[in-house]
Amino acid sequence: MRLNQRQIEIFNAIMVHKSVTAAAASLRTSQPTVSRELRDLEKQIGFDLFNRFGKRLTPTSQAQLLQSVVARSFVGMEEISRVATAIKGHNAAHIRIACLPAYAEAFLPDVVHRFLKSRPRVHLSVHSLGEVALRHDMTTQLFDIGLTEGSYDYDDATTEKIDAGELVCVLPAGHPLTAKAVIDLQDFQGVAFVYYSEEDPYRRKLDEAFDAACVARHYTVETTTATGLCSMVAAGVGVSVVNPFTAAHYAERGIVLRKLSVRVPYHVNLWRPAKGLRSAHADQFVRLLRQVTEEMKQRFKVLLAD
Fold first, then answer.
1. What pLDDT, in 10s, does the model give residues 134-168?
2. CA distance 208 to 214
3. What does pTM read for this prediction?
4. What is the CATH number of domain 5-69?
5. Which of 192, 151, 180, 204 is nearest to 257 (CA)?
6. Where in the chain is the domain with CATH 3.40.190.10?
7. Phi and psi (nearest 5°) for 267?
8. What is the C-alpha separation between 156 and 132, in angstroms, rounded?
């Protein structure tokens, strides 16, 4: 089964505009034409995309799932259009960054702030998604810089690791384990634990360490982002182990940091296009990123020494 571009445009227009009439207007075609092509699309894929109540259309769960993929492809097309417009206006100073939500919140704002102080005319776009979705988008869209936890191979691109320190224990204020300077794996036995989702690469590393130590944690909740994890810990839901960027960001927001007795190195995987496709602006952004990372590592030593 192969869908054509027109079918995807019609489906996206209906999802965005919430009605066949508005979708037809946006596509500069007639309502009967959109309705007919929608029925043909549903017949081709073999399931209904909308529940029909008179003239009202309500997306099915299958439509919502399909739109989560379709929307990203349209964002990519809009990005290409913006770049073409910038080139036409001789103003192509634009850096596109793909990263995890934890990076977008915890340390990229500092990098962006420093960068724009010396290059205020450069436009930055930060594309933030979970690891699995981000990996997909980095293979299908154009980015100048990609920052992930997992290490992946891409055509016409290079990847390298940036040492960002180690994973660290995060505890709610007043938790009994805050009395210790270093937390052993055995200290987590039966303790309420907030955890990453199963696809997270560092969850697998932690699972191996806890399994080797025969420690059974009491999982209270799973979350897909490190920022969500730390928010849960700050609220007293449980304890956890998290990357140093997010831990440092939340150090003054209701959580206590402690060293983990088992060293689990943490790296940011930096993705760059092939050298012929790189820009001087992106090179400078990466230099600042490395600088901020090193400063964060030094600050972290102070936080853990308190």
1. 777 777 667 889 898 877 666 667 788 899 999 99
2. 10
3. 0.66
4. 1.10.10.10
5. 180
6. 93-164+267-297, 168-263
7. -125, 145
8. 20
